[in-house]
Amino acid sequence: MSHLLEVNNLEVKFALRFGDLTAINGISFALDRGERMGLVGESGAGKSVTGFAIINLISKPGFISGGQVMFNGRDLTTLSNEAMREIRGNQISMIFQDPMMTLNPVLTIGTQMVETLLAHRGITRAEAEAIALEKLKKVQIPSPEKRLAQYPHEFSGGMRQRIVIAIALLTDPEIIIADEPTTALDVTIQAEIMDLLQQLCESEHTGLILITHDLGVVSQVTEKIAVMYAGKIVETGPTDRVVSNPRHPYTQGLIKALPGSLQPGARLNQIPGMMPTLTDIPPGCAFNPRCSLCDTICREQEPPLKAVGDDACKVACHMVTK
Predict the structure, then answer these.
(1) CB-based contact 160:103 (threshold 8 Å)
(2) What membrane topology does the annotation report for this chain (predicted)?
(3) pLDDT tier at 262 (50, 70, 90 boundaries)?
């Protein structure tokens, strides 16, 4: 059975005066219909660039320099802007960190939703209004009829993010890419939004790629996970198995840094050092300057992403053998 989305050896570079910098270095993963996947890592790991590359929205000086993004049998990296517009926002929707960046402050919610539908579907305005109302109900916005006539500033942050999700659902997409969708919200609202996204993906059979630095959120919502570091996937597998038995030292560090992983009152663990910038990614394993297991081979050879234990989990680490 072929996958709904298949990313094969994707590479993204940024063309700068002194040469090209590699932001995404040959990553591969697949997503099936209705499947929920998490892309996890610190800032600078390449998660958001991956999301933008899937929908071919890398802005200059960035460009896709290699690999494929196969969606329903078509390679999205080869399509024209016009062909991509039919897919982007229609079959693949994206939800961003800050809802105020997505919503137009001078248009009512109803206008924005109706215009989105009219741009993608050959339907009447009355039909578009009916769909907009239905989607607002789906994301549990109270008194949706009244809300359609309101402006973005009249909503709380959590409500705005619900509206952004409703807009993403307007065209019944096959995949939603959610880029840190709860970062700007407080913890209780975060949990509500993530529950909502999970319910919607299950009921609509929509695939989800959740981009986040928060392993706690990923473990609640996704079925599989890919941990990214310096533009590469360093560990991947079913979410419950990666979270309960992380093998890569970086994944172990991320999990130990979660507040709930320690005794109350204990100091939080943190991974020493910083994610390397694109200009100074070290030779060998990019994580080696921060890693307590680092050996000579780690400084000299880049570890391949290989199966460990069984085929379900893969890890890119010279020190992990089983």
Answers:
(1) yes
(2) Peripheral membrane protein
(3) low
**Nearest residue to 7 via CA among 154, 183, 209, 181:** 209
Antiparallel, parallel or unpaired: β 306-308 and 36-40: unpaired
Phi-psi region at 41: left, alpha or beta (left = phi > 0; alpha = psi -120 to 50): left
Question: Which pTM was predicted?
Answer: 0.93
Instruction: Tell whether the torsion through CA atoms of 181, 186, 192 and 198 is positive or negative.
Output: positive
Cross-strand partners of 238: 224
Name the residue with higher pLDDT: 282 or 269.
282
Are 163 and 136 a contacting pair, CB within 8 Å? yes
Chain centroid to CA 232: 14
Q: Residue type at 296?
A: T
List the 224-229 sheet strands across, edge first.
92-95, 175-179, 207-212, 36-40, 224-229, 232-238, 313-315, 306-308
Calpha distance 196→23 (Å, rounded): 32
CA atoms within 13 A on the CB side of 263: 2
* Residue 110: alpha-carbon gap to chain centroid: 27
* Listed residue (44, 39, 75, 58) closest to 207, CA to CA: 39
For the chain, give the mean pLDDT: 91
pLDDT tens sequence across 217-226: 898 899 999 9
Report CA-CA distances (Å) from 301 to 9, 66, 115, 268, 284.
Answer: 19, 22, 52, 32, 4
Please give the structure tokens belonging to residue 290.
Answer: 């921060």
The predicted structure's pLDDT at residue 260: 66
* Neighbouring-strand partners of residue 8: 68
Which secondary structure element, helix H or strand E, spans residue 67, and what is its range? Answer: strand 62-71
β partners of residue 38: 210, 225
Helix (H, G, I), strand (E, B) or coil at 160: helix
